[in-house]
Amino acid sequence: MLGLALGSVQADFSVSAKAPMPQPRWWPRMLVLGVVLxxxxxxxxxxxxxxxxxxxxxxxxNGDTIEVxxxxxxxxxxxxxxxxxxxxxxxxxxxxxxxxxxxxxxxxVRAAATVLCPLADSNDVRRIKIEPSxxxxxxxLTYSRSHWFETTPGGACQEVVTHN
Length: 164
Known about the structure:
Layout: E1 2-6, E2 9-13, H1 27-44, H2 49-52, E3 57-59, E4 65-79, E5 85-96, H3 102-122, E6 127-135, E7 142-144, E8 147-152, E9 156-160
Parallel strand pairs: 5-6
Antiparallel strand pairs: 1-2, 3-4, 4-5, 6-7, 6-8, 8-9
């Protein structure tokens, strides 16, 4: 230790043997972990095969063939302002369309309804939603026209006119 006395003030020039340790960098580790998790989720949901898988096509009774984008039994849950929970259950069919030929789309919707009504009735589903749909570039937005049908016992359907 070096000390220097100048009158009543003493200066202490001590040299520390330990240099400050650099702080570990956390962001490269988080980046690698994020990439690994993203790849794992991508593989779990089908990886490359899922987006490149062709959509099924249905031949309808009117002679047209539609490309099916979505076909499933669907449930919508909602809560009203009064706090009541409502559940809407329906059979949902969404097929690819340009939405430019409304007559053809309506014909395809009616033909699909004649096929789906007996199926919905046998599964105790009372509503059917059929949508001709167009997807925007890159698939981020979907434009569609919804047609609702109510089934009756025996497999018959009636289109329900909705005003949005």
